[in-house]
Design a protein that fits this description.
The protein is of the alpha/beta class and 203 residues long. The protein has a single domain, classed as Class I glutamine amidotransferase (GATase) domain (Rossmann fold). It is 27% helix and 36% strand. It has helices spanning 12-26, 54-63, 67-75, 85-90, 185-188, 192-202, and strands at residues 2-6, 31-35, 46-49, 80-83, 91-96, 100-101, 110-116, 126-132, 136-142, 147-151, 156-163, 167-175, 178-181. It starts with a strand and ends with a helix.
Length: 203
């Protein structure tokens, strides 16, 4: 198993650490590598798109020439976990809580609509416990987090919470080979999502 973590910007090193820990828990052998260009894409078993600045990451993906190839590979079944900014990049519909419609580079592979900065800016970051279908209760960290406000087609929600101004919103969704998380499992140290991701790769 060879898992890549997009290493262009954001907290990719934390994902690498947690993936290795999750692989140990699952008794899976393999390697976890940072992905900074197209050269390793075709040799990956799965890829993680980490948190960070979604607009910046999207532009760096474009600049590195990975956009079309990555979009095609995910659409054709490459297991993908996107957290926070990663979930935004995977969504087919994106708007910002303040400025509304956005024009930013997206992979647009998952049947979800998200609102960027749904809970506010950095100072409104928070940590809470959430229930995840098939997993149980885990600790979730929200930092300038998006909210998943639309889900259609084969996508479905695995966890939801009450959000100010938005009501009940999804914070974790899955569609086939793809997982989109509004929160940061790599910051809380929870391996549950990474273990779920490894299970998808193993299928």
């Amino acid at each position: 198993m060879r898992i890549g973590v997009l290493g262009l910007q954001g907290d990719y090193e934390e994902h690498i650490y947690l993936l290795k820990k999750a692989m140990g828990k699952k008794g899976v052998s393999g390697e976890v590598i940072p992905v900074k260009d197209r050269s390793v894409l075709r040799r990956l078993s799965g890829i993680v798109i980490p948190g960070g600045e979604s607009t910046v990451i999207g532009r760096l993906i474009e600049r590195s020439g990975m956009t079309e190839e990555l979009r095609e590979m995910i659409s054709q079944g490459l297991p993908t976990l996107g957290t926070c900014a990663g979930a935004i990049l995977m969504a087919k519909r994106v708007r910002d809580r303040v400025v509304g419609e956005v024009t930013q580079p997206l992979l647009s592979v998952m049947s979800i609509g998200v609102v960027r900065n749904a809970f506010g800016r950095q100072r409104e970051s928070f940590e809470t416990e959430v229930d995840v279908e098939g997993v149980g209760r885990i600790r979730a960290v929200f930092i300038r987090a998006p909210a998943i406000v639309e889900i259609w087609g084969n996508a479905r929600s695995l966890s939801s919470i009450e959000a100010p101004d938005l009501g009940r919103i999804s914070i974790l969704a899955v569609e086939g080979n793809m997982i989109a998380s509004a929160f940061h499992p790599e910051i809380s140290g929870e391996t549950a999502l990474h273990e779920m991701f490894i299970d998808i790769i193993k299928k």
